[in-house]
Amino acid sequence: MQNRKQLYFSHKQTPELAKVVEPLKERAEKEGFTIVSNYRQADIIASIGGDNAFLQAIQKTEFKEDSLYVGISLDNLGFYTDFHINDTDHLMSSIANDEVEVRRYHTLEVTLDNESPFYCLNECSLRSNVIKTFVIDVYIDDTYFETFRGDGMIVSTPSGSTGYNKSVRGAIVDPRIPSMQVSEIASINNNDYRTLGTSFILSEDRQLKLKIVQDGNDHPIIGTDNEALSIRHAHELRIRLADKNIKVLKLKNNSFWDSIQRKFL
Ligand code: NAP
Ligand code: MN
User: Fold this and answer.
1) What is the number of the ligand 1 atom nearest to the C-alpha of 166?
2) Helix, strand or coil, per DSSP, at residue 195
3) pLDDT averaged over the chain?
4) Per-residue pLDDT reduced to its tens digit, 66-109
């Protein structure tokens, strides 16, 4: 922490929020940090807001590997946010007293057809935006696995497993396990159509390929964390665990399972 002094703030650009963040900036400057307006120069990137704001901060700053991210919440603490905006004393003293640690989160690398890859911290989802069923051929390591018919599929990281994945009854995965989970959204299962019907977890050296079976009426939506790409002529998505990890400043006494307990039980 000692030599990480260039600090960048990521938040929604509203006058209300600017007012809330101002005292934090002043405090940080007093503690010897320099506030930078270009995230490329930042050692530390502070996201102000909930998990949603954190996902936005990561996407906007391009999954910066040489920065440390910290989530500062405006209300309840989430999965990526360990600190509260009204408790900067706690943030500063935690850092000074060595109560923090850097946790690494796995990300997904997603390649659509022959374009350059993009990254996801929570999940990549693929679904139709029309009422008709959507058909996807699923390949694991280039070997055909199943044909999916239904609303779509979700591929989540371990830290994203508590998000969209959980809502479709996927398992929660400890972020220490380098893996990705594939979950179905409303698959059709009868004597004509058959899929596995449960989520499955792939190890870090596997590659998943989702081939969109075109019938001319497909309007796939690709969800990447909290953004959506609507692509008319997409053919296939290749997804694997990325080499990029996101480093996040977390409280030592707030483990992933503490957050699960706090949020869900
Ligand atoms: P949103 O619909 O406004 O928020 C979805 C909720 O998910 C928010 O409460 C958000 O927390 C929470 N969240 C985000 N990341 C999470 C995580 N890793 N574990 C547990 N909860 C998480 O959408 P959004 O704010 O743009 O967030 C995008 C995320 O929403 C996606 O990445 C996806 O995981 C999730 N999502 C869920 C569903 C579903 O469950 N049916 C559908 C679409 C998307 P905050 O309130 O702290 O922001
Ligand atoms: Mn939200």
Assistant:
1) 40
2) coil
3) 93
4) 999 999 999 999 999 999 998 888 888 887 778 899 999 999 99
Ligand 2 centroid to Cα of residue 112, in Å, is: 26
Structural domains in the chain plus CATH codes? 6-98 (3.40.50.10330), 107-243 (2.60.200.30)
Q: Tell me: the pLDDT tens digits for 108-160?
A: 999 999 999 999 999 999 998 888 889 999 999 999 999 999 999 999 999 99
First to last CA, the chain: 34
Residues shown for the chain: 265
51 is catalytic: yes
**Residue 37 CA, ligand 2 centroid: distance in Å:** 25
Per-residue burial over 55-85, b = 16 or more CB atoms within 10 Å of its CB, e = otherwise: bbbbbebebbeebbbbbbbbeebbbbbbbeb
By alpha-carbon position, which residue is closest to atom 11 of ligand 1? Answer: 51
d(CA 222, CA 155): 11
Q: What is the pLDDT of residue 216?
A: 67
Q: Report the SS3 class of residue 60.
A: helix
Contacts of 200 (CB under 8 A, 6+ apart): 181, 182
Task: Return the closest-CA partner of residue 133 out of 182, 190, 81.
Answer: 190
Q: Kindly state the helix (H) or strand (E) to which residue 237 belongs, with its residue range.
A: strand 236-251
Token pair 């963040």 in the structure block, residue: 21
The model's pTM is 0.95
Q: 84, 164, 166: which to mutate for ligand 1, most atoms within 8 A of CB?
A: 164
Report which bound ligand comes closest to the CA of 75.
1
Ligand 1: does its nearest atom lie under 6 Å from the Cβ of 158?
no
